[in-house]
Amino acid sequence: MKTAVLLKMLFPGGDVCVSGHDSGPVFEEQPSSLIYPEGLSEGKVTLSCQARASPAASYRWLVNGTEVPLGMDLRYTLVAGNLVISSPESIRDTGSYQCLAINRCGTIISRAANLKFGYLNDFPPDSRSPQTAYEGIGTFLACQPPPHYPALSYRWLINEFPNFIKKDDGRWFVSQVTGNLYVAKAEPNDTGNYFCFTTINMDISTKSTFSKANQLTVLPDANPRKSAPSIKVRFPAETYGLAGHTAQLECFAYGNPVPKLRWRKVDGLMPSKAGSSAEGPTLNLPELSFDDEGVYECEAYNSEGSDTYQGRINVQAQPEWLQVMSDSEVEISSELHWSCIAAGKPRPSVRWLRNGQPLSTQDRLEVNGVRLKISNLALEDSGMYQCVAENKHGTIYSTAELRVQVQAPDFRLNPVRKLIPAARGGQVMIECRPRAAPKPSLFWSRGTELLTNNITVTPDGILWIHNISRADEGKYTCFAENYLGKANSTGHLSVRDATKITLAPSNADINQGENVTLQCHASHDPTMDLTFTWSLNGVLLDLEDSAGPYHRVEGKENIGDLLIANAQLSQAGMYTCTAQTVVDSASASAKLVVRGPPGPPGGLLVKNVAETSVELRWSRGYDNHSPIGKYVIMGRSSLSSEWKKMRTDPVNIEGNAESARVMGLMPWMDYEFQVIASNILGSGEPSMPSHTIRTQQAAPTVAPSGLGGGGGDHNELIVTWTAMAREYQNGDGFGYVLAFRKKDTSSWTVVRIPHVESSRYVYYNDSLTPYSPFEVKIKAYNRRGEGPFSQIAVVHSAEDEPTVGPSSINATALTAFEIQVSWEAVQQLSANGILRGYEV
């Protein structure tokens, strides 16, 4: 209410807004929100405001709904509409600012600009407690940032400036939410002093500060324990993002070896915009859209296991106009209807302003949410109107000017046409549209004669003359009158010969790729120019494109033949030739049939999905005037972008078929399919791809390849193999069954390895003899069962150091810089390894 009283004081009645000359204010520049550094007392803040108006606008400013005391407080200066605040202070100047632009046509109010003050205090001077960690175990250092506004960015120093922790080191992670520093597994050389380095970004400056040292000591461990990942940095269970902005989710895990991270969208495909961030600790989704809503999962994994965490992104949106009002000139005593419709999430509310003042339903005014209605318009309703849509994420304004017209009839801007040509036997419309408010009464006369029976006048004053003859030539006058006055305007009707088609195009039947000419000749009034146009199924053709299929056949003015070169299926249809002058036209049509390969089959469905086969059903497409002879089925898996011909049952699919079975598919694989029809004129376009389907799961049918191993540390047997590719897994719950035994023994040791990425297994036993031969074999398993074992391979346990050395060692000087060393070669190494060389 306080704002409304103030506005009445600012916008009293005054000069009259002159129609056709004056215009109300329209913002060209509006103030923007600003964060100003607290304590920078010598500076200035400038809030912009510029409006286009005639006469030029004057300006006022509001802060939190109260007028800024321009002229009374010397800290405030108005510069061409812009508000300049000298020596700004947080206590006095924090607030929401709006600009008012005013002239005699009305007043508009700008969007709100928030002036806030940014600050970053220093870290406390107190020393921080030392921390101890163990080699191979994850830990974190807390930043504990000082009071600040707005949000900070964080980095960490180690020991001295500018030795920052590197972002691309997968062991380390700096949370931009808490500022804490995390390490997936500590190492002895991580011992040192760590400093949290914080930075604040404001509109005109930045500021940084860093903490006291966080002393970290990492205690070594001769045999660090390996551990599965454990997620320690988790994003919220519900994250709210704003459409068009960026959403960031953080996820980091402890583990040894250092866990790798990957993200997926649980209820859909991961947006491509995520890029490489989908395999890092921070998932970035720029330019958020509603398609990005859903549940996202972070998975941390290493050779010891995995850990997952899920959370949901909800996308909301600032208001956005779907429909706005526009400037309107409306005659007095009539009705005005305006609508303003905005999208947003949450749904925006809409309110209305006139000359900056809130509107509500009263008397002739009806405000109904997004709609405004003013009945029985009066002159005082003229002014500047705004609709305002707002939700918790923002506010938008739409502005329009209303002018209520009152005027005696006037034909000066829109007289009746002076010369009105018309064709004999045709019809003509003569408009009468004077400027007048309120709406005038209209009537017609033909000189001093009465209007004949073939002439009618519509309720809005339009004169129609039908079945025109020479007798209808002459002057016609429109009279307009309202309570403010009267006026008239006269035009002359001139009757011309009608246009007629003398040679119409004929139906044609051709094959795809052939040329055809459609003829069209016409007669017309010799005093007028004749032009020909052609349309296909009602759509006008471009005959000026020399590279296109349609060309004019050059000839006399009354000939408009059309040449269609290299006709395609899409060019079949009804062709219409139109011969026209400025007063009339005549048309004739012919049908062109183009025979060609069949169109794409439709309604492709995948049914009865089995492990290695599916059934396809489709409906026949257009045969394009030549019977379909056969069908071919194409398919591709998710592992390839190339379409390939599929094996089918029946092998040859006849033209009257509408189903077939696709054979030879891989189990648990994603496929999509297309169907192509052909006839004697060739193969047609493929059908739309089917929905992607996944074949049923089956037990693995092949064994892993590349079985081998060897090497390692004392008391270890290392077995390696090639991880199974996706196309051979045949199902989920995939892993490996490894069997090994010492050579010449009968009992197998069997282990299950439940990780599809695994390609190495280490068996440790204190009693393991060095370089002992083992027989090993491996097979794959999944949820549906186990596959066959591989061929047996022989792998040796780790070697030990040699227990014998060379003998008869002799050294001979060759030069001042060279000697020759010789020895007796070791004839047989003990059973603990293979002789690989000598070290001198």
Structure description:
With 840 residues, the chain is mainly beta. Helix content is 2%, strand content 48%. The chain is built from two helices and 76 strands. Strands 2, 5, 6, 9, 10, 11 and 14 form a seven-stranded mixed β-sheet that branches. The model is unreliable at 1-14 (pLDDT under 50). Pfam families: fn3, I-set, Ig_3. Its main location: membrane. Residues 600-698, 703-800, 805-840 form the Fibronectin type-III domain.
Through-space gap between termini? 98 Å
Mean pLDDT: 92
Q: Please describe the biggest sheet, giving its number of strands, its sense, and whether it closes into a barrel.
A: 7 strands, mixed
Please estimate the helix content: under 10%
Structural class: mainly beta
Shape: flat
Low-confidence stretches: 1-14
- CA radius of gyration is 43 Å
**Fraction in beta strands:** over 45%
* Number of strand elements: 76
Number of helices: 2
Family: Belongs to the immunoglobulin superfamily. Contactin family.
Domain Fibronectin type-III: 600-698, 703-800, 805-840
Membrane topology: Lipid-anchor; GPI-anchor
Keywords: Cell adhesion, Cell membrane, Disulfide bond, Glycoprotein, GPI-anchor, Immunoglobulin domain, Lipoprotein, Membrane, Repeat, Signal
